[in-house]
Amino acid sequence: MPEAPSESDSQPKPEKSERRTPADVAEEVAPGIVRIMLPIELPGLGHVNCYALEDDRGIALIDPGLADGLSHDVLTGRLADVGLDIARVHTAVATHGHFDHFGGIARLRKLETAQPVAVYAHASFGAGWRDAYSELLDPASEDSSSLEARTDEEVREYLLELAGSLRRETPWGTKTDGFPVDLLRSWSEGINPIDTLRPPDVSHPVNDGDTIELGGHAWTALHTPGHADDHLCLWNGELGVMFGGDHLLPNITPHISGFSAYDDPLGEFFASLERVAGVEGIELVLPAHGDPFGDPSGRAAAIAEHHHGRLDRIREIGDEIGNQPVGGYMKLLFRERSWGMMAASETYAHLEWLRIHDNATRTNEGKSPHYDI
Fold this sequence. Notes:
- The protein has helices spanning 69-81, 99-102, 105-108, 127-134, 144-148, 152-164, 181-187, 265-277, 296-321, 326-333, 341-357; strands spanning 27-30, 33-42, 45-55, 58-62, 89-93, 118-122, 204-206, 211-214, 217-223, 232-236, 241-245, 284-287, 324-325, 361-365, 368-372.
- It is α/β, with parallel strands linked by helices.
- The strands form three sheets. The chain has a seven-stranded mixed sheet with strand order 1-2-3-4-5-6-7. Strands 8-9-10-11-12 form a five-stranded mixed sheet. Strands 13-15-14 form a three-stranded antiparallel sheet.
- The protein is globular and about 60 Å long.
């Protein structure tokens, strides 16, 4: 997530485990659960954790990473290292609708597997992104073979259109950045480029409290909106384990997006933290980034404290600058190197919390809302 200024910036800091590059081995982190670190190139992150669980039917995967060929090759190799054949994958679970978690499902579904890959995700999985893509392309109208038949210039134009489709109006009066075309091209070799970013169809929608069978154990679903509207955690009391996705990370605090179907995404996140903290018997959290950790209640409290500190800082900024748009607050809340879409989005979510729960007022100056704290 974007970084805020700190008085200790001049002091060397230990490396956060979320930022490490992938280990070259798979590791059993709990009985019957293998952690595979897959490569990603996203700000502040060095990998995404994919977890593999085996049962008598084959393999289930939690968050199979990006859609790029490198991630798929690493996943295939690490599974083989522990005696697992990727062709035996029968289930993929996406903890939420961000492409570094679900992208690999596109390649899994292209494999000649013994059985179709079932996809589990929250019932609202990827709703906002599906809307963004719906006007661009009918999924049935394109496939990788038809793209291969095009000229380089035609493919380039298609990629530009796809990348540009992510430019949309924000609730705080700007436009999103779109997507880098070169990165989209490198990720999508061998598959339809739209499948690198478009949430896959879900065969098994999951709601809060539902039970999923994975690796011979029953996992209870917890809907934990905040980082994403569709975020799921899965926990099993017998093992004392919870798959935390991006809801609980060991060292960094999850990004809270202002793009949300909820009026108060930060308020939803606080409520989700309280829910997870109240689950008894969880001794180990398996996050989507970083190392496994214990004491989920303590970590949830620390993350909540961090965001309340942000709210306090915004109150101070409001005293200094008065009635300002989101960008005015963002530039004092975050370091300059973090200014951009994610920082603005998180600033907006915090300003909306202050409007709903505190004394902040919002006025619309043209298309750009202004806040007075």
